[in-house]
Amino acid sequence: MAIIIDGKKISDEIKSEIKQRTEKLFSEKSIKPGLAVLLVGNDPASSIYVNSKAKACQSLGFDSIVKRLPEDTPESEVINIVNQWNADPSVHGILVQLPLPKHINETKVLLSIQPNKDVDGFHPENVGRLVIGLPGFVSCTPAGIFELLKRSNIETSGKHAVIVGRSNIVGKPIANILYQKKAFANAIVTICHTATKDLSYYTKQADILVAAVGKPEIIRGEDVKEGVVVIDVGINRVDDPSTEKGYRIVGDVHFDSVSKKASAITPVPGGVGPMTIAMLMYNTLLSAEGVVY
Hints:
The protein is an alpha/beta fold. It has two domains: 29-114, Leucine Dehydrogenase, chain A, domain 1 (Rossmann fold), CATH 3.40.50; 140-272, Rossmann fold (3-Layer(aba) Sandwich), CATH 3.40.50.720. Helix content is 39%, strand content 16%. The protein has ten helices and eleven strands. It has helices spanning 7-29, 44-60, 75-86, 106-112, 124-132, 140-151, 171-178, 199-203, 255-259, 273-289, and strands at residues 3-4, 34-40, 63-69, 93-96, 160-164, 188-192, 208-211, 229-232, 236-239, 247-250, 264-265. Helix 2 (44-60) links the parallel strand 2 (34-40) and strand 3 (63-69).
């Protein structure tokens, strides 16, 4: 059976390191990392995410601003708030919770965030910095995947990493991370997507497989080779009348069959998920320390 890569344990280690550095920053320079989060509308999942980020800030000694706006808020008001935070030296990270209501242009709003406060790592300047290997903020889920591999001592150099999914949030940035010429990267990278005619042909070649496509249990035991390292980013709700809630959460990987062949694998839940908020906090700390820009 595969080694289970415990994202909860590793994220707790990272948050402990963040807390120590936060205390040091305050004692030496009287600076507290500050994260400002904007939520527009009443999406229940978004509200849960925002609350969890505020709790993380509190537990680590960060300052936290959470601004909630009604669904019909004009785009101009959203951008005006972002600009106020851009100009506020006590705000080191700005996060606009997605999705936004349909009348608001998400790209326009994200572009209004200053790159040096873009702790989500979505601004084109930070994406471009990642591509050419300059320091910048890396989007949180891919950064979390990198930390999982690094802290689990997974050899990546010269290995074939197959990424299933090409989203701007996960697929593209993790591909860019893994092919960089640096420690815990330096991999040969293949990206699979909707035009891939025989997905299994590629996944069977993977030494490291990152599944980030959003389709429940699409990758099964027969689709991977012995000894593969599997990072399952998917979070999918499937009906299950046998459970109290009537559903269960599964990944993009069929855990039972794949774990019998893998050398290491992340579970769902408890794998990549906990890393995302940990890396958001880490990016905010880096911004407060002034070591990125």
